[in-house]
Amino acid sequence: MPVTLLDRLPLPNLKVYSAGSVLLLSVAMYYAVNVTSDPNWKANTTLQKQETASGIVEGEAAKMVQPAVTAVIAEPPMTDTKNFSDQFLEVMTFMMQEPLCMWTLINMAYCSLALFGFFIQKVVFGRLRVSEAQRVKDKFWNYLFYKFIFVFGVLNVQYMDEVLLWCSWFTLVGFLHLLGQLCKDRFDYLASSPTSARWANTRVLCLLMGILTAASALFMVAIVWGLPAGKDTFAFMAAECLLLGVSALHVLARFTLRAHDADAAGPAAYYTHLVFDAVSLVTETIHVAHMVVYSNVVVSMASLVLLMQLRHLLYAMLARLRRHRLYTALSSHMSRNYPMASAEEVLKHEDNCAICWEPMKEARKLPCSHLFHNSCLCRWVQQDASCPTCRRSLTAGGEARPAEPPLTGPNHLFHFDGSRYVSWLPSFSVEVTRRAGVDLGPGLAAATATAAAARPAPDAAAESTALVEQVQRLFPQYPRALLVTDLAVTRSAHLTIDNILEGRLPPPPPLRPAVAPAPAAPDAGADSPPLSDELDEDDSAENAFSATAAEREAALQRRKAELRAAARARFLRRRPAPAPAPAERSPRS
Amino acid sequence: MMAGSALRRLMAEYKQLTVNPPEGIIAGPVNEENFFEWEALITGPEGTCFEGGIFPAKLVFPPDYPLSPPKMQFICEMFHPNIYADGRVCISILHAPGDDPMGYESSAERWSPVQSVEKILLSVVSMLAEPNDESGANVDAAKMWREDREQFNKIAERLVRKTLGLPPPE
Ligand SMILES: [Zn+2]
Ligand SMILES: [Zn+2]
């Protein structure tokens, strides 16, 4: 359940925030130094402290902080010749006691964490891709929402100290979770990239190791501080660490699988994923169930949210179980009916697998003697029982019938009647439809609708030079000659601007020095043959497939513009009808 | 996992289409942030009423590509018996084996993972040249194609000029 309500919150950017935080901190420091320079400050504040202390009923968390504070306070009064570290300690002590100063300190801590996160992002990931940034944002708000529910709905924390401790705990855990999410997304991206970016992989791997280390450190924290506070607290904290560790390990496992070139849906990879999925799903379910039991409130907003989450988790678990049953049924069916091809056959078959286009080390052979990866074939047969290449039906071959039952059979198994277990659990049935419908974006309709009507011809009085000026003002980088040529054809500034914007006019020289003469070519006359020849040559030179996304995108853009320009030139050459039009329109006629 | 193999296959196809492009066809993801959405340019086939036009279309791939076919939609105005008014292309190669809206296609012409973007686009080019008037994606266009070819050619000419950014003939 993604929580996107808060998505539009106006957050200050990092620079402003950190500058503000540093400013605040220095003001607070200045104040603290001023106060503590008075030798009698301690007497004043401890008095206040004792007055308020009786009012504070300390929770478990408060107990942890209190001894440290009182220990410092109990120190004997200093002489005037304080050294620097003592003074620093004193300033800190004061700041911890003074609420306003303490908030500045906390703010500063968050600010440093944000800066640290920013630094890691810069070093490890570089610029985030849009989907990654979006995923992190979603996860962040989701996490914030559930932890808010947890702290105030489940634990029902009431004392500031406790809230602060839980906040700092969840800040650290959440921070690591977000980094883990980034690692996962980046791994998926790197795995699909055609070039092997060794260095990028190494950085992500290092970060994953860091996350694992931090997760174990947090687990130690849970043992040292959480355990004395009670078994429940410990279980909550430990579950968080476990989830963090499992997700990081899962990404590490994917790295390992890929490094060993494992078949993407082969048994090794499949069972690895199964184990990780199972561990994280079960842990999370137990964690949420524990919260529900602990909160012990029958009807409240928090328990409602938790139950929804629990339901979602159970749903996911059942879906996973069903997938697993399907997988086992299918793989046993395949191994019974379609033998693996011999090594010799695979060698003789020079082509790649026709489904994934990747080379085959081992393959399964269909009765029609077409070869495919086991995993690719598995996934296809789930959808259609025929050979992908020759379309021969696989079910027609006598005893191949069992292919059907695992596809449709187990459906009824997944009706979940929650009330059989706990009275308030809902009932639902799980239908896993594998074909996710991808709808074309709504922008399309709008795009097709624009400019459908033919534009009226421009006013006869309009000077063509004025039109050129008008376009040139908008696109100073385009050579004037090029604009004149195009305007002679379109006779409309709008159409020419459209042509420029939609890439039908070749881009200006600075983008592409190699083609510098090309834009000038139309100037010589629309029927100059060198234009298309030149473009053809360029095409062959630029057909190289670049290594970076940005270069590929630019090259694609360029090739499109060239195709359009060449088509225009060809069209005008064959049907030069509109070319003399401006002459007819001249005042002479 | 699923999307990973789809991405690898799409990347391989993109590479092949870039290094060894078929005549008059360009296709690729406009923004690689979303590799599942491509834009293609198709040149109208020679010797037909669509000759010379550069027709842009959008291809949207499912996460389980190539097990399921992509969807294709022209993003320019089109008038053709096999293209819906909103630009969606109705051609047998784009139909998954399971669904059969027309009820006449043999499964041999349908989508299979051995098909590819290149094959789809080439099929669309031949569809532009020879409409299949059994499929009535655009009934008006189908009728005009059968009964008033001259008018059909005129409309096609206007569309071709429009895709090239040229004003309609007077
Ligand atoms: Zn394969
Ligand atoms: Zn076959």
Question: How would you characterize the overall build of this protein?
Answer:
The complex is a heterodimer of chains A (589) and B (170). With 589 residues, chain A is mostly helical. Chain A has 22 helices and 4 strands. In chain A, the strands form 2 sheets. Chain A has a two-stranded antiparallel sheet. In chain A, a hairpin with a 5-residue loop joins β1 (364-365) and β2. The radius of gyration of chain A is 34 Å and the shape is flat. The model of chain A is unreliable at 1-7, 49-80, 396-463, 509-541 and 578-589 (pLDDT under 50). Chain B is an alpha+beta fold. Chain B contains 4 helices and 4 strands, in the order αββββααα. In chain B, strands 1-2-3-4 form a 4-stranded antiparallel sheet. The longest helix of chain B is centred in the first third of the chain and has 18 residues, at 2-19. The radius of gyration of chain B is 16 Å and the shape is globular. The termini of chain B are far apart. The model of chain B has no long low-confidence stretch (mean pLDDT 87). The interface between A and B is large, with 72 and 70 residues. One zinc ion is lined by residues 366, 368, 370, 387, 389-390, 392 of chain A.
Summarize the structure.
Chain B: This is Ubiquitin-conjugating enzyme E2 G2. By secondary structure, chain A is mainly alpha-helical. Chain A contains 22 helices and four strands.
Which features would summarize this protein structure in a list?
heterodimer, A: 589 residues, mainly alpha, two-stranded antiparallel ribbon, 22 helices, disordered N terminus, disordered C terminus, B: 170 residues, alpha+beta, 4-stranded antiparallel β-sheet, 4 helices, globular, binds zinc ion, transmembrane (chain A), metal-binding (chain A), transferase (chain A), zinc ion binding (chain A), transmembrane helix (chain A)
